[in-house]
Every structure is written in C-alpha cells, then in structure tokens.
Amino acid sequence: MLKKRIIPCLDIKDGRTVKGVNFVDIRDAGDPVELAKVYVKQGADELVFLDITATVEGRKTFAELVGHIAKEINIPFTVGGGISSIADVEKLLAAGADKVSINSSAVKRPELISELAQQFGNQCVVVAIDTGKVDGKWRVFTHGGRTATDLDVFEWAKEAEQRGAGELLVTSMENDGTKSGFAIELLKELNMITTIPIIASGGAGNAEHFAEVFEQTGVDAALAASIFHFGEVPIPQLKNELRTKGIPVR
After folding, report:
1. Any long-range contacts for 213-216 (C-beta under 8 Å, 24+ apart)?
2. Does residue 11 have an active-site annotation?
3. Domains along the chain with CATH numbers
4. Which of 48, 83, 171, 244 could disulfide-link to 88, CB 3.0 to 4.6 Å?
5. Catalytic option among 45, 130, 176, 220
6. Is 51 among the residues known to form the active site?
C-alpha cells in the first residue's frame, strides 16, 4: 500500500491565513510563511495554499507570497485560487509552486484541464471539487462554495480524470470546519470510480477521523486546516497514532 499523505491547507486572504466553518465565519489563523515552516518541521508531506478571494489585483500579490514560501520550505506545495489560464500557471510555477489547483475555472471551461495537463504534465494539475447536497444529490459548487451547479460530482470527477487531472482535491461543504469527520460515503464512491489520487478535505476533528478516512475509503491523502493551525492535532502525534493502527504514513 502506498504511504498516505497528511496535508495542511492554508486559506489565504489579504496575505494572511484564515479559516472558516462551512466556508463562512472567517477568522485569522496567522502568517502563512511562518505556518508553512512549522508544518515542514512537524513532518507535513505537502502543503496546499488557496487564495480564497483571488482577484486580478491579488494575483501578483499571491505570486509574490508563493515566492516567499518557496524560499522557506522544502516540501511540495500546491497553490490555487482564481487560476484560469496557462499564463497564470506559468507565473505561479515560476514563483516556486509544484502544483496548481483549479476549480471554478475548470467547471466553466473544462478544456482548461487538458490544456494545463498538456503544457505542464498531469502531475501538476489538481482539480479541486467543492461539493454539497442539493435535493439529496451531491452537486459541484463554484466560487468558493457560493454557487451551486447542476453538475453531478461523480460525473465531474470522472470527466476531470479523463481530461488529464493528476489528482482530485475533494471538499465536502457539509463537513467543512465542523470537526465531525470526513464525508466517508462520498469519498468511498469517488475513490471507486476514479483511478487518480484523491485528497480528502472537510471535517477533520481528531486523529480517529484520519484513520477512518484512510481505512474506509482508500483515499491517498487527507487535508485539514484549523486543527493544525490552532495546534489541536500536532502532525507528529497524528502520524504516530496512524502508524499504531497499521496505516502507512510517510
């Protein structure tokens, strides 16, 4: 079995790390560069940075921040938020990012996935999927979880893979920030119908939730934010607990 990855996620707004519940009630969580350095020391396998209020004006600022982060850390990191073109990706990779995450722009124009995969390689392209239930069905949401679409999450996941996504970052909006555990059934089904790695996101509250998502769904990685940012679950302790349960971690 491939070793599972533990990935802290840093949502960036105006150059600061923030965290919300169900995509709202945002509060400050610290300086992203300093947090990133802490996570490297603690043994995080990768990091994800999402510019949650990406704008045309903010793109240059975010690229500068990516450059600062790249100078300070030595583990792979993914950046996302407002990316809609090859030029956007070139700028962020040149600044030092290893992968990019696309979401709303891919839903709006699915060809973007193929274009980026062809230009930079599948391994560089992470398709992020924010999903919530509408009339009992899992639907894809865009614009930071604010806009519901008619897209079925399972069909979209398959299409994203076919178009060249190297990974899927799946966030259940129902679970996000609740610390009540990951969306197990959703992730299990997605993992069954796709062959690329899935990063589970939304709902981590303790070490047991990580064990559950790895044991019950087969996902490759699990991502969390507030429990790491506010010191509730230190990464070394988390990895030790997973190892005692026989779950291989890096």
Report:
1. 213/181, 213/182, 213/184, 213/187, 214/4, 214/242, 214/247, 215/245, 215/247, 216/184, 216/188
2. yes
3. 5-244 (3.20.20.70)
4. 83
5. 130
6. no
